[in-house]
């Protein structure tokens, strides 16, 4: 029986999904959920054909990628209590699941440390995520939803613990590709608003 669910979201990143999924299938005792957020490349269909064991969550009719909403859709579909969020560009090797599970105890959430490009790999108990109300869906664009989640867990009284980040790496790609499906507009203004929300959460400001 699986102990951990890996949740990934995808919109227009099928090339990355094709690179990361074979390695993820090598992990033991893991379920896999991928959110097809109106992917123009039909990543859900590709997964059903090539990896039928993956639970695909299809969210049609979305013009832009909203990371918190997509992640919430994936976590809701998880059937295990322990969940690990992984970005679509994150490569894994066997041993990751053991490292994550070894540090997770009630009252904690798990991060991989300060490795560049891996801050979104956060593990937590689904029941804590439900108490939190999920990721903050008011965030949009290029937003710090992973940092916001960690701060929110801390505000709840949860303790961060670290697992071994060397089981992870990420596919290098441009900021243009990263932001291609985001809500258009004044990116600087949105970033400032998102970071202010994070600041408010961190320091208990109204």
Give the topology, please.
Elements: E1 4-10, H1 14-24, E2 30-37, H2 43-50, E3 55-59, H3 67-77, E4 82-85, E5 90-92, H4 96-103, E6 108-111, E7 123-125, H5 126-132, H6 145-155, E8 159-162, E9 168-170, H7 175-178, H8 187-203
Parallel strand pairs: 1-2, 1-4, 2-3, 6-8
Antiparallel strand pairs: 4-7, 5-9
Report on the structure:
The longest helix is centred in the C-terminal third of the chain and has 17 residues, at 187-203. α1 (14-24) links the parallel β1 (4-10) and β2 (30-37). The protein is globular. 39% of the residues are buried. It is of the alpha/beta class and 206 residues long. The protein contains 8 helices and 9 strands.
Brief characterization of the structure:
This protein is α/β, with parallel strands linked by helices and 206 residues long. The chain has helices spanning 14-24, 43-50, 67-77, 96-103, 126-132, 145-155, 175-178, 187-203, and strands at 4-10, 30-37, 55-59, 82-85, 90-92, 108-111, 123-125, 159-162, 168-170.
